[in-house]
């Protein structure tokens, strides 16, 4: 597994558990165990939840304040359902970290970032072929975007730029 | 017409560079073939039977002369001297080479064109009424919102990886010339009965293919400023809840059909209520900025009737025929919209040579404020021609085999590429169109038959719209031979209907005869002034079926 964010590769401080084993400091549990894990949480311990893309943002909404991380599974790169789940989580106020986990391709990195993901967890087979540099390139390859409300980092929103130009009185109004 | 600003331009250029990088990463092994495939498709590049095919977007069917000239250049330098206009108002080059594609994309970017999202599981090229901005029955020009939707849907980060393709059509007129009901999502400009304000009726869940379904009303009236937020809500519900287990059940129409329009509407409205609209919608000034590009051209004040054209028609009956069939009533006095038929008798529907493209580009510049339209019926339109100039335009078209006077007639046939090009085809469609065109070539006969549409697809995917043809022809394969199923009664307009099957499939050589029988029933039974489709609605399927059976029995 390779974990990366828009700065590059990073160490994974999280431990994913199948059973309710809460020995580590940062533990990712399945949705079914989330309630119990939160109840048993030690002071200073962080809990994350891993969900399939068939789950909905609404299921996690009650736990937003206690959750430090949500991991959304991408069963394949071309199944973009997780993008909408991430967007919903952000719209509904989740401010913790969001991780996309699965065989994405680097060209999808800007989509994931724009929808609210912070990091990508990539299986070894994908990571072997697509080194971190490709992801960093991909994140800034298209420097402008039309969609308002999806901005991140280096990308400029076209509608905001046009609005700013109008306000400054230099709009290219035909 | 819309013109790119620095941002539109930058996005398209960066996209070309991105594609070049994708090709390079495929070649060096960074991307597997399976990973590269959807990236290539989102750039309009298909693998067909004999070659790559490149599909170029013509957003809402609007083109200017310089763009058509550039397409002619690409046809000559990088293809085989012709292009094919499709029912989705795109242009396809059938003989592309992978190594040339980045260069061709660069040439397109030079004239504000691209291939972005002309294929793949994303929001596709937005289509519209070909007479947008000029039609007599228009409530409002749909092109400004078509352009707004084009921009909004371009590289939408959330909706680049949908379960299946997603097609949007817009119409601003009372008559539907954009086949709105066969789209995943339709936007009709309507007036609010109470306030009189213009807003949008939203339709959802239409589609053809193996499960043809008519779009249903999702929202009767949506205020203008909320368009993008509402589209976002609809697409999000689809992205989350649309099926992904079966490619044939992945379109939004299946979701709407399976859960029902009420349940679907509830999901969309709930999502819409939660969206921070101010964060998502385009502000009114942005809508106005786009709309300003579509201001009417500098029309002259002209009389209603052109004496010049009247007199020319008396001298030339062929011109009179052209005027009768290929001109469309304009909102502006003294002007007309001229349809250029890409259906010469015996030709390939929608094909156009580079030489013809240049001729038409010149005509657009000289006679139509530089503008052209592409129609879903695979023809072109000069939208702003003075009636006084029609005879000259006609003469120039005629010199290049572009003056066929058959718009809306039985030889104005829609046909998909079929087995001559397409790797999914089960039968050929072009030769069937050619045979029928020759069979009904006689202009007097065509006039007697009047308005009727034939639409042909080479497989169940229905790219040739056969379900909504007054006469629909579907090419299948039965025990290794091509077999053609015929339906009648389809209607793409506001009186939308899917055609009904006449009987068993026929071998190619019997198709013209079978169509003859169908037409003979109509001619014998019609009442004063009744078109084919009107007569069919009154008579029902039975008399046509009985006539068809005579042929089917001979074959069997
Ligand atoms: C490489 C060539 C092509 C391929 C592989 C292809 C593939 C398909 C497929 C698989 C469908 C069915 C989608 C579904 O039912 O979900 C479809 C539908 C459609 N295609 Fe094509 N097509 C091709 C060329 C064309 C052309 C040339 C046109 C225009 C003439 C076109 C326009 C359409 C339209 C209008 C539909 C039906 C509307 C709908 O339900 O989406 N396609 N195509
Ligand atoms: S209808 Fe079938 S044969 Fe025709 S273009 Fe579409 S996929 Fe190909």
From TrEMBL, chain A:
InterPro entries: UCP030820. It comes from the Bacteria. Pfam families: DUF934. This is DUF934 domain-containing protein.
TrEMBL record, chain B:
Pfam families: NIR_SIR, NIR_SIR_ferr. It comes from the Bacteria. Keywords: 4Fe-4S, Heme, Iron, Iron-sulfur, Metal-binding, Oxidoreductase. One of its GO terms (molecular function) is oxidoreductase activity. The keyword Protein biosynthesis does not apply. Residues 119-273, 410-550 form the Nitrite/sulphite reductase 4Fe-4S domain. Residues 52-110, 346-399 form the Nitrite/Sulfite reductase ferredoxin-like domain. This is Nitrite/sulfite reductase. It comes from Rhodoblastus acidophilus (Rhodopseudomonas acidophila).
């Amino acid at each position: 597994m390779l974990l990366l964010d828009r700065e590059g590769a990073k160490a994974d401080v999280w431990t994913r558990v199948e059973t309710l084993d809460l020995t580590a400091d940062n533990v990712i549990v399945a949705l079914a165990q989330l309630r119990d894990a939160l109840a048993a949480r030690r002071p200073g311990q962080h809990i994350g939840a891993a969900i399939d893309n068939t789950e909905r943002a609404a299921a996690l909404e009650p736990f937003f304040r206690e959750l430090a991380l949500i991991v959304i599974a991408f069963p394949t790169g071309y199944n973009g359902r997780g993008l909408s789940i991430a967007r919903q989580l952000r719209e509904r106020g989740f401010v913790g970290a969001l991780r996309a986990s699965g065989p994405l391709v680097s060209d999808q990195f800007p989509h994931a970032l724009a929808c609210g993901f912070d990091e990508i967890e990539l299986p070894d087979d994908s990571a072997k072929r697509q080194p971190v540099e490709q992801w960093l390139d991909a994140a800034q390859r298209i420097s402008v975007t039309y969609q308002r409300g999806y901005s991140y980092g280096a990308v400029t929103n076209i509608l905001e730029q046009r609005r700013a130009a109008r306000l400054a009185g230099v709009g290219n109004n035909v | 017409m819309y013109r790119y600003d620095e941002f539109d331009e930058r996005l398209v250029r960066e996209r070309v560079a991105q594609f070049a990088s994708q090709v390079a990463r495929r070649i060096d092994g960074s991307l597997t073939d399976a990973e590269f495939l959807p990236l290539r498709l989102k750039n309009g590049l298909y693998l067909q039977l004999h070659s790559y095919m490149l599909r170029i977007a013509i957003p809402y069917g609007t083109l200017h002369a310089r763009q058509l000239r550039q397409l002619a250049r690409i046809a000559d330098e990088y293809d085989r001297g012709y292009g094919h206009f499709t029912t989705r108002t795109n242009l396809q080059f059938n003989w592309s080479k992978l190594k040339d594609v980045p260069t061709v994309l660069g040439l397109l970017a030079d004239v504000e064109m691209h291939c972005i999202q002309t294929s793949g599981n994303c929001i596709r090229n937005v289509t519209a009424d070909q007479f947008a901005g000029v039609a007599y029955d228009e409530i409002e020009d749909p092109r400004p919102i078509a352009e707004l939707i084009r921009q909004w849907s371009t590289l939408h980060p959330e909706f680049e990886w949908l379960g299946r393709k997603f097609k949007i059509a817009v119409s601003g007129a009372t008559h539907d010339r954009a086949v709105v009901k066969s789209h995943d999502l339709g936007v009709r400009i309507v007036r609010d009965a109470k306030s009189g304000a213009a807003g949008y009726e939203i339709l959802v869940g239409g589609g053809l293919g193996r499960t043809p379904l008519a779009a249903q009303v999702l929202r009767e009236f949506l205020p203008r400023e909320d368009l993008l937020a509402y589209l976002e809500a609809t697409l999000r519900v689809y992205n989350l809840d649309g099926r992904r287990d079966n490619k044939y059940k992945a379109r939004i129409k299946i979701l709407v059909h399976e859960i029902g329009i009420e349940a679907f509407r509830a999901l969309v409205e709930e999502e819409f209520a939660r969206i921070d609209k101010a964060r998502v919608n385009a502000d009114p000034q942005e809508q106005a900025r786009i709309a300003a590009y579509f201001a009417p051209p500098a029309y002259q004040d002209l009389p209603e009737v052109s004496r010049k054209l009247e007199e020319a028609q008396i001298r030339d009956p062929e011109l009179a025929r052209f005027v009768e069939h290929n001109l469309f009533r304009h909102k502006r006095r003294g002007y007309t919209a001229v349809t250029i038929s890409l259906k010469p008798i015996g030709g390939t529907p929608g094909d156009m040579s580079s030489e013809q493209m240049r001729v038409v580009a010149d005509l657009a510049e000289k006679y139509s404020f530089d503008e052209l339209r592409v129609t879903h019926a695979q023809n072109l339109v000069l939208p702003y021609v003075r009636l006084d100039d029609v005879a000259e335009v006609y003469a120039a078209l005629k010199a290049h085999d572009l003056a066929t006077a058959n718009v809306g007639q039985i030889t104005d046939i829609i046909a998909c590429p079929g087995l001559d090009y397409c790797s999914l085809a089960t039968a050929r469609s072009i030769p069937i169109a050619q045979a029928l065109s020759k069979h009904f070539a006689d202009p007097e006969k065509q006039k007697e038959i009047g308005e009727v549409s034939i639409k042909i697809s080479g497989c169940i995917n229905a790219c040739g719209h056969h379900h909504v043809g007054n006469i629909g022809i579907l090419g299948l394969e039965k025990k290794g031979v091509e077999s053609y199923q015929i339906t009648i009664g389809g209607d793409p307009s506001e009186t939308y209907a899917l055609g009904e099957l006449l009987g068993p499939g026929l071998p190619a050589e019997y198709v013209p005869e079978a169509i003859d029988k169908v037409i003979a029933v109509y001619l014998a039974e019609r009442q004063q002034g009744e078109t084919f489709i009107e007569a069919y609605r009154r008579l029902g399927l039975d008399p046509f079926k009985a006539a068809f059976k005579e042929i089917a029995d001979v074959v069997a």
